[in-house]
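FORM 12-B: Structure-to-Sequence Request
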């Protein structure tokens, strides 16, 4: 495929409910939509998962826009490349995985559309229903949290993840176990603890959690390995797995027993396929993470989730939990059995609604070869 033009559109959407993690409270979501077009005007879509501030990782929307405009888009325009080669074309740029992933994933969508195939087939899998989990933010009270878990269960979701931080860990977990029994339950700390807090994390061993996600610092592997030795509950790494090599290092060191794959965090699908290969070769369970994506990024996530190594329910929930309305129509929905169908059709199977994008647009620019 030849990259004739690339468009960037920064959108800002209100969230249906505020989402609070140990790193902050989000009431809206920013995203850069990327469309890559060939000379005939066929388009592939991607979504940059960087948000307004550098709180989950070092990137934000402004750094992503800058790196896309100044370094990544010029490396692609006019080039004849397959989707598999795009990440190589970005090798000279260090870091900025979310910016890289947004355009790399758009290239995968375009290549699949040009081949008339669903994206999951280009990725080496085939459509299957995806087991959906929910991620529930920190609430104003334990009672409110217990109610949110009840709603998620009533909607059919296959597992519940709650956000924790020091002072909001043992009590909410205990309350959920009391009210909801032995449901598949896990916690995500988003790097809120230090190794000195090992005692309060060990206290969670009593509750039979599926895993504790990213308890320690966002780039740490060594202390996670020390902590894992002291915990019965498996550690799952999210933030720390920023590259295929980090996944290898984490498993060699014993820093985690489960990995969450987010293509945005890893720099795109090629890097995600590499982590998938590493984990499946070592029989390490995988699940697909989420970044409060609009329907565009959500569709990408569902296609990647069809790969066989994704054995645990992912953070792939229905559109209506995030945006009303989503940028795509119809939105993505969860079925009563707690699974989500991969959008059918070629590529990711969805395109954004032009009027909704226009309404949400903050800034837009198109670059030509
Ligand atoms: O750590 O998994 C995370 C959302 C934004 C940033 C980081 C994370 C999350 C979530 C929500 O947990 C996942 C989702 O529902 O999209
Ligand atoms: Mg996480």
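FORM 12-B RESPONSE
SEQUENCE OUT:
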């Amino acid at each position: 495929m030849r990259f004739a033009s690339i468009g960037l559109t920064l959108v800002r959407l209100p969230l249906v409910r505020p989402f609070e993690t140990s790193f902050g409270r989000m009431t809206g979501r920013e995203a850069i939509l990327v469309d890559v077009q060939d000379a005939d005007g066929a388009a592939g879509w991607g979504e940059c998962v960087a948000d307004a501030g550098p709180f989950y990782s070092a990137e934000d929307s402004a750094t992503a826009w800058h790196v896309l405009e100044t370094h990544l888009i010029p490396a692609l325009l006019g080039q004849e490349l397959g989707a598999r080669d795009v990440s190589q074309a970005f090798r000279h740029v260090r870091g900025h995985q979310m910016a890289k992933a947004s355009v790399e994933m758009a290239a995968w969508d375009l290549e699949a559309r040009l081949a008339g195939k669903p994206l999951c087939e280009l990725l080496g899998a085939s459509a299957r229903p995806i087991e959906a989990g929910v991620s529930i933010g920190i609430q104003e009270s334990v009672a409110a949290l217990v109610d949110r878990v009840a709603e998620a269960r009533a909607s059919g979701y296959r597992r519940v993840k709650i956000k924790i931080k020091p002072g909001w860990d043992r009590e909410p977990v205990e309350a959920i176990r009391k009210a909801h029994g032995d449901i598949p339950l896990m916690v995500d700390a988003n790097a809120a603890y230090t190794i000195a807090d090992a005692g309060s994390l060990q206290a969670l061993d009593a509750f039979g959690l599926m895993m504790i996600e990213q308890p320690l610092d966002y780039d740490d592997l060594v202390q996670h390995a020390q902590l894992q030795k002291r915990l019965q509950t498996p550690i799952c790494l999210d933030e720390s797995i920023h590259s295929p090599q980090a996944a290898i290092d984490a498993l060699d060191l014993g820093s985690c027993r489960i990995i969450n794959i987010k293509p945005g965090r890893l720099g795109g699908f090629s890097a995600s396929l590499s982590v998938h290969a590493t984990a499946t070769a070592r029989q390490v369970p995988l699940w697909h993470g989420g970044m409060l994506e609009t329907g565009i990024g959500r569709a990408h996530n569902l296609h990647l989730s069809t790969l066989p190594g994704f054995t645990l329910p992912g953070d792939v929930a229905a559109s209506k939990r995030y945006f009303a309305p989503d940028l795509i129509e119809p939105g993505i929905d969860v079925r009563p059995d707690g699974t989500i169908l991969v959008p059918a059709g070629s590529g990711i199977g969805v395109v954004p609604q032009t009027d909704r994008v226009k309404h949400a647009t903050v800034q837009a620019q198109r670059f030509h070869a």
